[in-house]
């Protein structure tokens, strides 16, 4: 069966490799629920399958007895999911992965790629079940759960498979080598083996786990490594479902299901440090806070660590043609999933003298007021807010929001209070509109680091050049993943692109319209650069995949006369 899987998915793999080369727009999966091959029946079955998981043991067939997960509470209902996951001992997980490894390590890249692509397709076919799981753990809207945590995240997984397969394909299996040494010609037959590194540990965040887990999981698995997935204790179910699908497909293909394990912990008794520092760990993928990401990078050795952490993303407003489209674009990005995305903007720099527009100069205060009005057009309309803001994943985010509010109120001016909205379908949902504060560029202790959640600052600065210097310095020193700029001056935009390139952050210029500012396209957009403290890895360049395997060689004198 494993060989058949490669043939079945060969067209998808070839197309993904080509998309990575050309960087054009492509997706392996229908992005709309209406495109799902199962239609309305699949939607109903997916919801029923999700509901059947609640309050019951989650069987994986591996090590560990089922234990209720106390930290997994739906941000929509406020009720615990009650799922009992297998709580395996760390040593049991590593022992199981190590036992399962040899046959997978010896399998050729074609076989492994076929299995991994089959896993992706199986997850896609169960998109509705996975979407409800993402909703009630990560707190996203159904639409974002289906696309951002579903098809888009799976595309990132396929992208990693394609990049890894292409990298492995560049290594020949054998070579005939000939060279003269004096009067004698030496001929050698050389053989090259692709050797995986060993057990990979994938550590997920709470609010958007699939986006980073899928590329990490498949990059390690397709290169021949067993994987232990460690979900955030408050957001387990979607990752547990993914692990279950992995194990099912591996078993059907004739491999051990223990090649992919699940490490479930609690907030009170975490196991992440044990996993990272375990002597069998050879690869670590981490998504989360900058503080813990720094610990992972410092303590993972001898494992190789791939991290995506946090950063304060910026917006530079130099000049615009029409103001309203810019305000709507920024408001949509500030509201999207309550700014719980690594691409959400936070620091919006506006010149004190105002913003030149086609209709005249708009003062900094009026710009902030207009942005607040554009945000309220989303955050105060329940049906629209439910689709865009969704929920706040963790109660801790609301506590941090209150702290930032009090500090900003004492220093600057609160332009927009962070008020909750009443979700039309889930009246107990944990919600909040954005906090918008107007501060001075000197208030760097307020805005100079990421304030996770629905928080944004309109920062009064002397001019757009001062803003560029401050924002790019913060990206270099403290981290940023992305940035945005609005200017009618092409020379300024050239300086912006050069400045953020040096700072290691992506930049998007003058984007308005239906495409969200936050959108990052698989196969085309490099997500994180590894050039500043927001992370040391990129989804998905060659360095993201090639460090997961090595090449060994053997040499023999060539047999002549044949």
Can you give a write-up of this model?
This protein has helices at 2-22, 39-53, 90-106, 109-125, 127-138, 142-169, 209-222, 237-252, 272-277, 290-299, 323-335, 364-379, 382-388, 395-411, 444-447, 464-478, 490-503, 542-546; strands at residues 65-68, 84-87, 174-181, 184-196, 199-203, 227-230, 260-262, 281-287, 304-308, 313-317, 345-351, 355-357, 360-362, 413-416, 435-440, 455-461, 482-486, 506-509, 549-557. The protein is an alpha/beta fold and 562 residues long. The protein has a 7-stranded mixed beta sheet with strand order 14-15-16-11-10-17-18, sandwiched between helices. It has a 5-stranded parallel beta sheet with strand order 7-6-5-8-9, sandwiched between helices. α11 (323-335) links the parallel β10 (313-317) and β11. α1 packs across α6. The longest helix has 28 residues, at 142-169.
């Amino acid at each position: 069966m494993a060989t058949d899987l490669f043939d079945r998915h060969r067209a998808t793999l070839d197309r993904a490799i080509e998309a990575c080369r050309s960087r054009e727009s492509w997706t392996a999966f229908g992005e709309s629920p209406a495109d799902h091959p199962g239609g309305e029946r699949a939607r109903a079955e997916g919801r029923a399958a999700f509901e059947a998981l609640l309050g019951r043991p989650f069987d994986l067939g591996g090590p560990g007895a089922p234990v209720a997960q106390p930290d997994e509470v739906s941000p929509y209902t406020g009720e615990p999911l009650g799922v009992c996951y297998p709580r395996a001992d760390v040593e049991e997980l590593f022992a199981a992965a190590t036992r399962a490894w040899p046959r997978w390590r010896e399998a050729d890249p074609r076989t492994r790629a076929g299995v991994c692509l089959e896993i992706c397709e199986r997850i896609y076919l169960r998109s509705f079940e996975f979407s409800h799981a993402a909703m009630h753990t990560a707190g996203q809207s159904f639409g974002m759960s289906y696309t951002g945590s579903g098809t888009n995240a799976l595309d990132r997984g396929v992208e990693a498979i394609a990049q890894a397969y292409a990298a492995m394909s560049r290594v020949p299996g054998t070579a005939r080598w000939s060279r003269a040494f004096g009067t004698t010609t030496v001929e050698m037959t050389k053989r090259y083996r692709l050797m995986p590194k060993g057990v990979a540990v994938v550590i997920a965040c709470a609010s958007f786990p699939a986006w980073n887990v899928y590329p990490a999981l498949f990059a390690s698995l397709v290169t021949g490594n067993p994987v232990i997935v460690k979900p955030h204790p408050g957001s387990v179910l979607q990752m547990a479902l993914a692990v279950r699908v992995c194990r099912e497909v591996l078993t059907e293909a004739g491999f051990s299901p223990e090649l992919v394990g699940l490490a479930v912990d609690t907030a009170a008794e975490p196991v992440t440090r044990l996993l990272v520092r375990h002597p069998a760990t050879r690869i670590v993928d981490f998504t989360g806070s900058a503080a813990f990401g720094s610990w992972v990078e410092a303590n993972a050795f001898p494992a190789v660590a791939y991290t995506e952490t946090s950063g304060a993303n910026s917006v530079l407003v130099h000049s615009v043609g029409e103001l309203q489209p810019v305000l709507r674009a920024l408001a949509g990005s500030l509201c999207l999933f309550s700014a719980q995305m690594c691409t959400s903007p936070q620091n919006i720099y506006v010149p004190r003298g105002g913003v030149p527009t086609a209709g005249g100069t708009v003062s900094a205060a009026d710009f902030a007021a207009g942005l607040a009005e554009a945000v309220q057009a989303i955050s105060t309309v329940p049906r629209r807010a439910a689709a865009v803001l969704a929920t706040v994943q963790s109660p801790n985010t609301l506590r941090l929001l209150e702290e930032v509010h009090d500090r900003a109120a004492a220093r600057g001016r609160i332009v927009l209070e962070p008020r909750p909205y009443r979700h039309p379908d889930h009246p107990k949902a944990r919600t909040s509109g954005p906090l918008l504060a107007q501060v001075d560029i000197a208030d760097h202790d307020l805005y100079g680091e990421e304030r996770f959640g629905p928080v944004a600052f309109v920062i009064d600065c002397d001019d757009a050049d001062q803003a560029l210097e401050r924002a790019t310095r913060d990206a270099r020193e403290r981290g940023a993943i992305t940035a945005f700029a609005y200017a009618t001056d092409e020379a300024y935009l050239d300086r912006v692109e050069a400045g953020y390139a040096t700072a290691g952050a992506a930049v998007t210029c003058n984007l308005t319209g239906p495409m969200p500012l936050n959108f990052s396209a698989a196969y085309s957009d490099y997500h994180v650069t590894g050039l500043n403290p927001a992370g040391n890895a990129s989804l998905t360049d060659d360095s993201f995949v090639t460090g997961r395997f090595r090449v060994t060689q053997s040499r023999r004198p060539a047999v002549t006369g044949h």
